[in-house]
Amino acid sequence: MSILGNIFGKIFGRGDDKTTVTGGKSADGTKPSPAGMNKADFGGKSAPIGVQLDEADVEVILTKKAEAKGEPLNWKTSIVDLMKTLDIDSSLENRKALADELGYTGDKSDSASMNIWLHRQVMNKIAENGGKVPADLID
């Protein structure tokens, strides 16, 4: 599964890396999620099944997950903290892979600029696919 797909799965309850939509059925043989799921863009990869983005309040979901970590994580501004909140590898290597997946054309050695861009793109993708994201976190 793509890193973006993994992010979506962790936010919306399908952290199972093996469960992706492929040709009308998931990799595990079950049917994809209910009608209305927007599979439009998961970084060019298959969308996780079981993801119902409709009415999903991303701020509530992520705030609860961050609080459960027991350390201050600012998922609203930091891609690293967002990934840590979701138990996803936040290493530079993994962030560069996410940047490739999302089509980043900037200098990946300028990690500060790349991280800002990544965070904004991930929030935009969540919003584009039906997640309720605070307006100040998206374009």
Secondary structure elements and pairings:
Elements: H1 3-11, E1 21-22, E2 25-26, H2 58-68, H3 79-85, H4 92-102, H5 111-128
Antiparallel strand pairs: 1-2
What does it look like?
The protein has 139 residues and is mostly helical. It has a domain at 58-133. It is 40% helix and 3% strand. The protein contains 5 helices and 2 strands. It has helices at residues 3-11, 58-68, 79-85, 92-102, 111-128, and strands spanning 21-22, 25-26. Strands 1-2 form a two-stranded antiparallel sheet. β1 and β2 (25-26) form a beta hairpin. 37% of the residues are buried. Residues 15-54 have low confidence and may be disordered.
Please state how the strands of the largest beta sheet are arranged side by side. Answer: 1-2
* Total DSSP helices: 5
Number of strands: 2
What's the Cα radius of gyration? 14 Å
Largest sheet: 2 strands, antiparallel
| Helix-residue proportion | 40-55%
Name the shape in a single word: globular
The structure class reads mainly alpha
Low-confidence segments, ≥5 residues, pLDDT <50? 15-54
Give the H and E element order. HEEHHHH
Q: How would you name the oligomeric state of the polypeptide chains in this document?
A: single chain
Distance between the termini: 26 Å
Q: What fraction strand? A: under 5%
Mean pLDDT: 77
